[in-house]
Amino acid sequence: MSNYLSIIDKERKEMLDAIGVAKCSNLYADIPVSLRNKQFKLESGKSQQQVYDEMKDYASENVVFDTVMRGAGAYDHYIPSVVKNLSSRSEFLTAYTPYQAEMSQGILQSIFEFQSMICSLTGMEVANASVYDGSSAAAEAAFMCVEKERRTILVPENVKPQTIEVLRTYLRRRNITIKVLTEKDGFIKNGKVCSDAIKDAINAEAACLYFEQPNYYGLIEDAEFLCEAAHSAGTKVIMGCNPMTLALLKSPGECGADIAVGDAQPFGLSLSFGGPYLGFMATHVTKDTMRRMPGRIVGQTVDGKGNRCFVLTLQGREQHIRREKALSNICSNQAHCALVASMYLSAMGKEGLKEVATACTSLAHYAAAKFTEGKATLKYDNTLGVEFFHEFVTVTPTKADKIVDKCAKMGILAGLPIGSNEILWCMTEKVRVSEIDKVAEIMRRA
Amino acid sequence: MSKLMYAKTHEWVKIDGKEATIGLSDHAQHELGDLVFINLPAVGDSITAGETFCDVESVKAVSDVMAPVSGKIVAVNDELENAPESINNDPMGAWICKVEVSSVPDDLMDEAAYAEFIK
Amino acid sequence: MKLIFERSRSGLRCATIRPLEAPVFTLEQKYLRSELALPEVAEVDLVRHYTELSHNAFGVDSGFYPLGSCTMKYNPKLNEEVAAFDGFTHTHPLQEKETVQGNLHLMNDLASSLMELTGMDGMTLQPCAGAHGEFTGLLLIAAYHESRRDSKRTKILVPDTAHGTNPASAAMAGFEVVNIKSNEEKGVDLDDLRSKVGKDTAALMLTNPSTLGLFEKNIEEISKIVHDAGGLLYYDGANLNAIMGIVRPGDMGFDVVHLNLHKTFSTPHGGGGPGSGPVGCKAPLVKFLPFPSVVVDKKGRYEFTHGKENKDSIGKVSAFYGNFGVMVKALAYIKTLGSDGIKESAEHAVLNANYMKAKLQDIYPTESHRYCMHEFVIDLQKLKSETGVSAKDVAKAMIDRGMHPPTMYFPHIPGVIDEALMIEPTETENKETLDKAIEVLRELYETAHTDPKYLLDTPHNTPIGRPDEVAAARNPIVKYDL
Question: Which of A384, C268, C273, C461 can bridge C75 by disulfide, Cβ–Cβ 3.0-4.6 Å?
C-alpha cells in the first residue's frame, strides 16, 4: 500500500511517451515471457503505521535485560547521547563509499581519524577502514601472513569459539592448515597460552600464531612472551584484542605483535543481537605489510592548490582493480560503525576511556570476589598467577542454567554458561554494584 | 655489443651475450600513466617469454608486465620499490630486472620496427 | 577542516560515566601500556566537528545519486526508527533462545520473504555484505561438488563485465577464474561459454541484469549449457532491483544467489557499510548453508539449528548471525512495499533509467536499440577523442551541479568500453530530478565542445579541487601522528 515513489500519472505518461512505450511492463521485453510473473507468496504492502506496529511486535517478543553481565564477544557499554545523535546525521548514513573525494571529504576525514585512533590504541602504523567483524578480521589477517612455504595457522583453543569457526570457514579451501593448540596437549595452562609449549609448536611451516587478549576466559595473556616465542622461528603474530582493554593494557605494538585485529563493537555500538559490529585491522609499515592489508585505506594528500585533503588510496590492492589477484574480496565494510567508534573515542577521550576500562576491571574484580564468597570458586584465580580484565569464569556446585534462570527473574542477564557448572561473566561500567550484590546472593546459595 | 629489442607487450630488453636487462617502454609508461607501485619479481625466479612476471600499478589500474625473453632472474632493481616513478621519468634507465637468458623468441622487434608497431 | 586531533586540548572532557561504585582495582604494572593518545574535546567541539564533516558529505538525502550498480535509492526513515527499538538493539547475541524469540521470528520472516522473491529453497542472513555473500555462496558450491565427490570442478566462469568482487571471491574460495567474453549484444558470448565450460566447471557467476544494465536474453540457454556440463549457476544480486517481483533468479535457473540488502532493500550504505548480503540456494545445497539457521519447532517456537543439524554446513562466516540491525530495516521495507509495491518499485527503476537513456542517447553513445533495465552505460570515448574531455571530467562537473556522479570507468572492456559512465537513477527519484540531470549532462556535452578547458579541472565549487591521488599512493600518509 505504501511506496517510496515520487511520481504522478501525468508524469509517468510523459516519460513512457518519451521512451515510446505504452506501459512500464513493455520495458521488460528482453525477459522471456515464460519466466515472468511467477506466483510468489508475499503479503500486500502495508501502511507505515502498520509496519511500525508489526516491528514493535517483534521487538516485544524479546526480553530486554536491564543489566547485562554477559560478554563473550559482545559487550554492553554506555553509549553517550552525543554519539547516537551525531552518528544518525543523514549525510553520514545515506552516503555511499567515498569514491568522489571532492564531495566526500567529511566521510574520508572521519575514516582517516578512525584509522589514526586505531593505530594509537594498537600501537601500530597503518589501519584499514574496517572489515565485517573481529572474526573476519582474524581470518583476513591470517591471509596476510601466509606465504608459499608457510601455510599453517596456530590457534590456541582459549580464543573465542566463534573466531575459530570463522577461521575454519575462511581457510578451508585455501590449502591452509589450522592447528588448534589444546589444553590436552599442554599448550594451555591455567587458562592461558603457555609460551614455552608454543616454542615447541612453532616451526618453519607456521605462518602465524593467532591469540586473543584478553582470551575467551577473560585472562590476560603474556603477550610479549608469546610474540617472542613465535618470532624465534620467523612465525608472525596476530593479536586479537578487545580494544576497550587497550585503554589500559599494553598495546599489541608494545608487545611485539605483527598485526592487531579485533572487534570495536565496545566503542559505542549497541549489542544489536550480534551485528553490525566493527572488525578492525592494524599493522606495522614494513616492505609489504601495507600492500597486503585488505579493504579501504584512506590517505592524506593535497589538491591542486595545496589544500590538505583525503582520498581512498592504495586501491591497487583491492578487488575492483586487482580482481582475482586481490588478496581479499572485501568491498562494502562497516564504515558507519567506524564513524560511531571514532565519535565514541573522541567523546570519551583519553581520560574517559581509561575510566571506562578501569570501571570494567574494578567492577569485575569486585564481582568475582563477591560471587565466590560461598561455594562458588573462580576457575582461574590469582593463586595460579593469572589475572583477568573484565571477564571471569566461576565454577559452582549448582548447574549454570539454574543460576542463569534465577538472574533472569531479577532482570539480569547472567554470564554465559560455558560448561554445565561454569559461567563466563562480564562486568562493564553499566553494571551497578547493587545488581552485583543481588547476583552474589544467588551465587552464595549456588 | 648489446642489442635493444622490444616485445609486442611493450617491454624493452637489452641482450648482452647471456644476460638480458628488462624494462618498460616509453610508450608503455605513457599509456599506463603515473605509476605508484611495482610488484617486483625475486632473484632466482624463472621467467617465460610471453608470461607475466611482475605487475605495475597506477592509481586506478594494475597491469601485468610480460617477460620478453625466457630465463632466470639474476638481479632486481630494488630501487624501484620506493621510486616506481623512475619508470615514468626514465623508462630506458629504470630497468626492472636482469636475467640469464635461456631463450629469445623470434618475434621481438628492433627499435625501428617497434616505432612502427606503436604508430 | 581541522582534524579532531587538532581540536584537542589537554584536560577537556566530553562524555562522562557514573563514579565508580566499587573499589578501584589496579592491574599490575607489567600489564599496563605506556601512554594513550586520544582526542580531548568538549562536547560542543565534538558536535561542531562532526557537523562540519557532515556538511562535507553527500548522501541520498542530499541529492541525486545515480551511482550505477549501487542502487542508491531513498532510505526510509521508518526503517531507521524501528531498527533502533530497544527490543532489538539491546539484545545480546548469546541470550537464551526463549528471550530472543522476536529476533529469531524476524530473521525467519525475512529469510522466507527473500526466498519467495528469489525463488530459492534456503537462505542464510549471515554474510555482512555482497562480497561476503559471494564468498559464502561459492563455498556452498564447493561443498556441493565435494559432497558428490566431484572434486575436479576447480573453475569459476566469470564474464568480463563482472564486478571485481566476483573473481576476487572465487579466488578467495579457492577456485581458478576463467573469464568469458561478451558478445556483440554485450551479453555472454555463448560460443566462448561453450568452449570453456566442462568437467572442471564449478559454476558460472552471472549478474543479471548485467553491469551494463541489460537483461541477459539467453539466460535459459546459458543455464542449460552450464547445467548440462554439471556446473551450477550463481546469481550476483547487485542488480536485482530492476527485476524484483518481475522474474526470480530461481526461475531463471540459478542455484545460488546473493542479495544486497543495502542496495535492493533500501538500507542505508553508511558511507561504505554496514551492508548485508544474504545468500539463498536451491534444495540440494541447503544443508551446506552457514550455521546456525533459524528453525521453527512444532509448537511455533523459534530456535537455532545446532549439533548434528549443522554437520554438513560450510561453517560460520560471521562471529554471530550477521548484521542483524540491517535485517530489521530490510524487513520493514519489504513489509511496507509488499508484493505489489516491490514490483512497482522495480518497474519505476526501469522506467527512470529508460527515460534518462531516451533523453541522452542521441549525444551519448549507449546500447540504443534495446531497453535497459535499472541502469545504462554511456561511453564517452568519442567525446574524449573529439574534445579531450573524459568521463572523469564530466563526472566531476556534475558535482558542481549538486549531484553525485555516476559510476566511472566501470564496466571496462578495453577497446569496447573505455570511458564508461554508468547511470542508475533508481525508482525513488522524481521526474524533475531526472530532467535536471538530463539537462546538466546535455549542457556538459555542449561545454565539452565549446569550452573543454573549463571541464578539465572541475569541480570548481567544492571545498577542495581534484586531489593528488598519485602522491597519496606513492607516499602513503594513513594516520595522524598523535
Answer: C268
